[in-house]
Amino acid sequence: MAQSIIGRVLEKLFVLLLREPAPLVGVEEQFQWIHRELSTGTESRFGFTEELIDVAYDVEDVIDLLILKAAAQGRRRGILEGFILFICDFIDQSQLHKKLELIKVKIPALPPPVVIPCARSHSADIEEIDWACSSSVQDQSLANTVVSPVIEKATALLAQEYIHPEVKKKVRRVQDKFSLMNGFLKDIEAVELDDRGMVWMEELCDISRSAVDVIGLFINRREQLKRNWGGPLMRVILALDNFLSQHEFSIQMDQLHTKLLDISARRPKIVHGDSRSREVGISFSELLQKLRERRIQLEQGVENLDFVSFDDDVHALVTRLLADDNHFFVVSVVGMEGTGKTTLAKLIYHNDAVVNHFHYRAFGFELLKDVRKPFGEPGSSMSPEKRAQPFKAFLADKRCLIVLDDAHDESFKNEMITALRDTSNGCRMILTSWVTELPSNLQIGSLYYGLRLRRDDESWTLFTHAMKISIPQELLKFRREIVRRCGGLPRVIVKLANALSQKEATIEEWSSVLQQLDGDQDLWSNALSRINKDLPLYMKRCLFYFGLFPKDLDIPARRLIMLWVAEGLVQPEGGNEAPEDVAERYLIKLIAQGMVQVTQKKLDGTVKTCRLPYVLQQEWLAKTQEATFLQYHAKTRSELSPSTGLIRRLVDHLDNEDVSFGHIHGDENTTSTSLKPHYQDVLSFLSFDAREGSKPGEDVGNFLHECISSSCFLLLRVLDLEHVFRPKLPKQLGKLTRLRYIGLRWTFLQMLPSSISKLQNLQTLDLKHTYIDTLPSSIWKVQQLRHLYLSESYRSKFMLRPRVGSLTSLQTLWGLFVDEETPVKNGLDRLVNIRKLSLTCRLTPSQDEAMLQQLEAVSNWVLKLNHLQSLRLKSDDADNQPWDLDLKPLSGHANLSRVYLLGRLKNPSIVSEFPESLTDLTLSGSRLTEDPMQTLDKLPNLKILRLLSKSYVGKEMLCSLGGFPKLRILKLWKLELLEEWNVEEGALQALHDLEIRSCLKLKMLPQGLRQRTLWNLKLTDMPNDFTT
Predict the structure, then answer these.
(1) Cβ-count burial of 465 within 10 angstroms (0-12 exposed, 13-18 middle, 19+ buried)?
(2) What tens digit of pLDDT does each residue of 240-252 get?
(3) Degrees, nearest 5: CA angle 385-390-394
(4) pLDDT band at 990, cuts 50/70/90?
(5) Where in this chain does the record put each Disease resistance N-terminal domain (predicted)?
(6) Which pTM was predicted?
(7) Under a CB-based contact definition with an 8 Å cutoff, are residues 446 and 329 in contact?
(8) In terms of Cα–Cα distance, which of 757, 746, 751 is closest to 720?
(9) Helix H segments across 228-276?
């Protein structure tokens, strides 16, 4: 460790001597002596001890002060200010001489190196090992999650002025300890840790969280002091406060350093190497036999998995395979065993359009028989290029489709890729695999297509289709149990359907089969094994979080993502990447690997809700409870800290056998002495008490009050009370200064405590579906706030105008009510980093002119939002009827993908000026007189279009040839004047969902759609004579 610190200090010192001569006037000789002493034979003259590190930190502190001084001298100043600075420089120069002389005294007094006899084996002390030199693995996400946040906070603090040198030294010490862990953490990702190793890892994560919180709070405190800097008396008071806060912070740094020394000494041992083996090569005859066995096994396992399960997948992939592109292209179908990868490949292989398009098709070993080539003899030294020559010759003049699955030898796959990658006759390859990363030679010119577990409705459709008998009415009550136990895995669903088809259709027989099923442990055992062996530790920590939720709860994806971010489980690797985007990628990866089941999707195909599959709930979470990494007390569902045994993540499932039930719900007398042993280390509190009436809110409120009064919950990062009816938030909520997430959605809460302004680390405040109409003015002081969700239906609004620099980190502002008093101009329009914006503008009687000015201000604000991704604007009058909506062209918003506009468009031409990035568009009350289809059909990425009530008031509508190339969902509601709708051939080629509602003058479905097979055609409140 000392080596890298000395190297860093010498590099800074060299740069200062070379490039910044001005600050060194009068002390240059002393610096040169220090540089010479530290750079000449340091290792042979001094031991790499704490004393040497201490001297290095002293030197670094002086260097940093001089660099800051040089920067300050470059700024222009007035005469009086210049005179004051001259006096200060004189004093500083005197102090600088003293510091340098003290350093010159310390260096010769450093202890000599300890000589260790060569004959004696010696395990170096942990502080002598430079962890950064450890070998690394490809995935660095764990190191990013644990180390990077600390480094970022420490770097930000060290760049500030007027911090005591001893404080800086302690921050550097902690920063360096974390920096040197990077390599070791990368090594940990490459192995499977035992229970003790998992405990160690979670302890390190706790220390990292504490360091980020402590440094972050100290920085925020200093920022507040700067903002409040006032008259002479106030300056004295604040200077004293600054001194006390630095003293307290120094103690906290000492505590963190002690913990780091302790955990470093207990680091787990790493056993390198991968126990998994892979076949190097097999003979041609052995390969054919292996593939025949595999083919028989697959056909037996999936014979009933037909098009009913894969219509959407087949359509998507066939479209890509038949694309007008002569370059070689690979589709990699990825998913866990049993999801139907090979079945999907077979359906595509035998698809009529595919059969007609390709001159030659081969399903794996069929190509080997046609080519008649010896293959892969063990020990063969022939290069892949030479081995691929027979394939190249055979396929040279053929537009071919080759399908290879998991059973095919890697060298065979590489040969096929080598043979085809340079072809230009439209050849395609389909690979099926459970591995979620593509081979390096497939990264270009390939499509990753993940097969997920099926939703409950899809599972039931597949089950009823696979049943060989009709299901009696009295057995339909088993529907929920069947889809839950199958976990969305198609092969398990079909296996269960086959088993039940052979039994009598009675409640007793079906109950017996379901009890014996247990989710088909043999099939799921592979998935469980891969979680333990292959899933990176940072992903496991995210997966563990599912254990906090009720087992049958469909967890909203947005809730899960926000909680992961608040807990610090994800960390962006790039400077411009939002942590929420990283968390979403984690979730998608877990879904693709079959470890998380999607239970509901949004119209645009994104995940709405999800849960763990049944078997993972039963088996894997049970295993984690046995391990100490995610320990659960025998009498609580809450997670315990592995180092202290205290509750770390507190969950209330309204279970009266839980040890916390009496504390939360008032069955026990609680005092500070009775609460503190349980709750002083709690990081998260989630309540799932969704009972009706006032008791849930009173219980939670009293519990929070008692805990805060008892100095508990002071480490709390997450307070999630979603669906708890009107929790009585205590006035002392502001004491929970480490809070990052407050979830109050569906609580119908009426008021927030004003002390919320003290929550300087708060990132997410979710007030959707509450009765809070006016936010406290102190909300503007929450500087780290990134996501603010308000209650659109209850007219939540701001009142006071924000100060310059308020809420600059805000990215989501959803559900804000705007009236003539809302501070938009020179207020809200300063929030220019918004990504998601939802506003409701309401006209009040006799305020027409004022609201028109507000609408213009909103329009100008939207124009400045260069990062905007989602926009929802509503404008209505006192009778809830659409009113004027002013909006300027949005073509410059390159990231904008979703737009919802309700109101009479003052500038109808904006319909032709939406950005090409748009995927989802809703218009309502727009009163367009010209056919919007003639301009919207040119949007290349539009997938969802809703034309709702009075959005178009014309009589005719036309979808032209080639228009709407990607539109999948079209909804036409209450277009009361529409009489004729025509669709030309070649338009709406991707459409599969069409809903027409209350278009009373429309006489028939367009001729161009009558011959189409739409997956979902829904007609509501249409005339009886409407022709389809």
Answers:
(1) middle
(2) 666 777 888 888 8
(3) 125
(4) confident
(5) 146-227
(6) 0.77
(7) yes
(8) 746
(9) 232-265
DSSP letter at 731 equals G
Residue 400: what are its φ and ψ, rounded to 5°?
Answer: -120, 160
For residue 707 the two structure tokens come to 């805990």
For residue 892, the tally of other CB atoms under 10 A from its CB is 11
151, amino acid identity: I
Residue 272 pLDDT: 44
Q: Is 959 exposed, middle or buried (0-12, 13-18, 19+ CB in 10 A)?
A: buried
Token pair in block for residue 99: 């510091």
Three-state SS across 637-670?
CCEECCCCCCEEEEEECCCCCCCCHHHHHCCCCC
Give me the numbers of helices (H) and strands (E) for the chain, helices first please.
35, 29
Q: Judge whether 988 and 967 are in contact, CB under 8 Å.
A: yes
Kindly state the tokens that stand for 313. Answer: 């997948």
Pairing label, strands 360-363, 400-404: parallel
Judged by phi (left if over 0) then psi (alpha if -120 to 50, else beta), residue 895 lies in alpha
- How many other β-carbons are positioned within 10 Å of the β-carbon of residue 761? 21
According to the model, what pLDDT value does residue 520 have?
52
pLDDT range class, residue 298, cuts 50, 70, 90? very low
Nearest residue to 436 via CA among 595, 556, 311, 601 = 595
Residue 132: other Cβ atoms inside 10 A: 15
Residue of 1001, 1008, 1023, 1003 whose CA lies nearest to 970: 1008
What is the phi-psi region of residue 1018: left when phi exceeds 0, alpha when psi lies from -120 to 50, beta otherwise? Answer: beta
Rg (CA), the chain: 33
Q: What is the dihedral of CA 464, 470, 475, 480, to 10 degrees?
A: 10
Distance (Å, whole) CA 31 – CA 60: 11
CA distance 544 to 290: 38
pLDDT tens, 817-848?
Answer: 998 888 899 889 999 999 999 999 988 877 78
Burial class (CB in 10 A: 0-12, 13-18, 19+), 4: middle
| Helix, strand, coil fractions of the chain, as percent rounded to 5 | 45, 15, 40
Instruction: Take residue 562 and report the two structure tokens written for it.
Output: 């926000």
Residue 509 CB burial class (10 angstroms; 0-12, 13-18, ≥19): middle
Which amino acid, 757?
A: S
Q: Is 87 exposed, middle or buried (0-12, 13-18, 19+ CB in 10 A)?
A: exposed
Please write down the long-range contacts of 40-49, taking CB distance under 8 Å and 24 or more positions apart: 42/6, 43/3, 43/113, 44/113, 45/110, 45/112, 45/113, 46/110, 46/111, 46/112, 46/113, 47/110, 47/111, 47/112, 47/113, 47/114, 48/1, 48/2, 48/3, 48/113, 48/128, 49/2, 49/110, 49/111
User: How far apart (Å, rounded) are the C-alpha atoms in residues 969 and 995?
Assistant: 8
Q: Does the pLDDT at position 108 exceed 80?
A: no
**Count of CB atoms within 10 A of residue 139's CB?**
16
| Distance between CA atoms of residues 747 and 755, nearest Å | 19
Tokens at 409, concatenated: 């030898």
Cα 250–253–259 angle (5° rounding)?
A: 150
Residue 145: pLDDT band (50, 70, 90) is confident
240-249 residues labelled b (16+ CB within 10 A) or e (exposed): eebeeebeeb
Q: Exposed (0-12), middle (13-18) or buried (19+): which is 868, by Cβ within 10 Å? A: buried
Nearest to 972 by CA among 987, 985, 957: 957
| Sign of the CA dihedral running 545, 550, 552, 558 | negative
Q: What single string gives the DSSP state of each residue in 139-155?
A: --HHHHHHTHHHHHHHH
- What integer is the mean pLDDT of 358-375? 74
- The encoded tokens of residue 94 equal 């005197």
Chain-centre distance for alpha carbon 884: 38
Residues 786 and 35: their CA atoms lie apart, in Å, by: 46
Find where tokens 């310059």 sit: 804
- Distance spanning both ends of the chain, measured CA to CA: 77
